[in-house]
Amino acid sequence: MDPSQVKIPPLKDLTIDNITENVILINSLCEDQRMKYVLERLVTHLHDFARETRLSSKEWMTGLLFLTEVGQICSDVRQEFILLSDVLGLSLLVDSIDHPKPAGSTDGTVLGPFHTHEAEEMAPGAAMSHDPKGEPLLVVCTLKDTQGRPIPDCKIDIWETDSTGHYDVQYAERDGPDGRCIMRSDKDGVFWFKAIKPVPYPIPHDGPVGRLLKKLHRHPYRPSHMHFMFEKPGYDHLITALYLRNDPYETSDAVFGVKDTLVVDLGKVDAALAKKYDVQEGIHLMTYDFVLVTEEESSRLRDERSKEALDKLGRKVKIVNGLPIPDLD
Ligand SMILES: [Fe+2]
């Protein structure tokens, strides 16, 4: 870029007090308005953070080396940055902001670092886990919209650990995906499959995020859960999970994912269900009625809540294409 074409004041003699406005000024050449806005706020908060904490060079270098290690341990089957975002509570916060849920719809929760794109689509009733040591579990669910109408043909990605609390990708010598499947809801919005009873497990804590937790005197455990992800054009993408009640980590999830509405009580398969689904009587039963919101409902609610959040900060705005515009009416 030719500096003579840039219509900004010369950037010299910058101080603790004027560095922020000047960095924002040079970044304001960005043509993507949303990116420009996010960068402006990011620089403002980062600089305020350094000014407020009186951050030392040594501390900031410790932070940079930590982030370097987080990046270095990442691979195609390990995502330490998602883990870092999770243990800082940022993943849950962003999901709650970006996927607001009206009353009566299913809450979202953290994706976690173990979703993959290699799950196979399976027929209704298939067994998604092949761990012989897992306690057999029948899962029978329905999927509806907020008006109570069944949602057919939705792609549902489901994943869980084996009975030792490890996901398939955590085994170096594995044959292929296990503990994962893709289901489709039928014409009545029903989907069902065979799985194993989820167990609690520690998030990977042999890397920089684990060392951070140790330093903070935090345990790395997640309560027993099974992940679900719903995708259908016209509906807001739902990433969620079901948690087992009375798990020892129900109220201290290392990644803050548990919500009351997502905690379930397991039942037992009775004789009639055993016959209907061709499974053994007495095995564990998990049932849940999921409710998806449409993209339109979600988008409207997202803008309403953006406006409310900025109102609370004393900024009178309306939201247009994700950007706060001064409300002059
Ligand atoms: Fe998980």
UniProtKB/TrEMBL annotation:
Annotated TM spans: none
UniProt cofactor(s): Fe(3+)
One Pfam family of this chain: Dioxygenase_C
Superkingdom as given in the UniProt entry: Eukaryota
Alphabetized UniProt keyword annotations: Dioxygenase, Iron, Metal-binding, Oxidoreductase
InterPro entries reported in the protein's UniProt record: 1_2-HQD/HQD, Catechol_dOase_N, Intradiol_dOase_C, Intradiol_dOase_core, Intradiol_RC_Dioxygenase
Limits of the Catechol dioxygenase N-terminal domain: 32-105
Residue ranges of domain Intradiol ring-cleavage dioxygenases in the record: 112-292
Keyword Transmembrane applies: no
Family note: Belongs to the intradiol ring-cleavage dioxygenase family.
Name of the protein in its database record: Catechol dioxygenase
